[in-house]
Amino acid sequence: MNTSTDRIERQIQLNAPRERVWRALADAEAFGDWFGVALKGQRFVAGQSVQGYITHPGYEHLLFEALVERIEPERLLSFRWHPYAVDQTVDYSGEPTTLAVFELQDAAGGTLLRLTESGFDQIPLERRHEAFRMNSSGWDAQMENIRTYVAAH
Q1: Parts of the chain with a pLDDT under 50
Q2: What is the DSSP string of 59-99?
Q3: pTM recorded for the entire structure
Q4: Can you give the pLDDT at residue 38?
Q5: Is residue 98 one of the residues assigned to a domain?
Q6: pLDDT of amino acid 4
Q7: How do strand 76-81 and strand 63-72 relate by DSSP bridges?
Q8: Distance (Å, rounded) from C-alpha 57 to C-alpha 64?
Q9: Running DSSP on this structure, what letter comes out for residue 27?
Q10: What element of type H or E holds 33?
Q11: pLDDT score for 99
Q12: Cα(53)–Cα(50) distance, rounded to whole angstroms?
């Protein structure tokens, strides 16, 4: 079990070829479908931001914003965002961001997906623990969401 307070790490074995998992990650619209954010008509481009409203019930009023940092085809996708930025009365723009990194590697019978989100130790103390806790459980759900998505596509 990961005991770091700065990073969340997850991995999942997906019974799908790397190309299919990569499309689910790197195609912004596909990513939005399983991640739960409306990114229709957008693309992930290194150095550019994407934004769209969350589609998960109860969170539709929240805007997802991420700055794509790196794209290495069929190997790595990373972006920066403000973790658990759900209070609409707070301006998070002055806060540090965390870095979410998705890495793919071939594995027997499919593809291993590793997710690391790091940088929580830089988040303001008054919301650090809650952001870590909520994103930690969120990534558990997202790993299952991508499993379901790649199995169907």
Answers
A1: 1
A2: -TTPEEEEEEEEEETTTEEEEEE-TT---TTS-GGGSPPEE
A3: 0.95
A4: 98
A5: yes
A6: 79
A7: antiparallel
A8: 14
A9: S
A10: helix 28-35
A11: 98
A12: 11
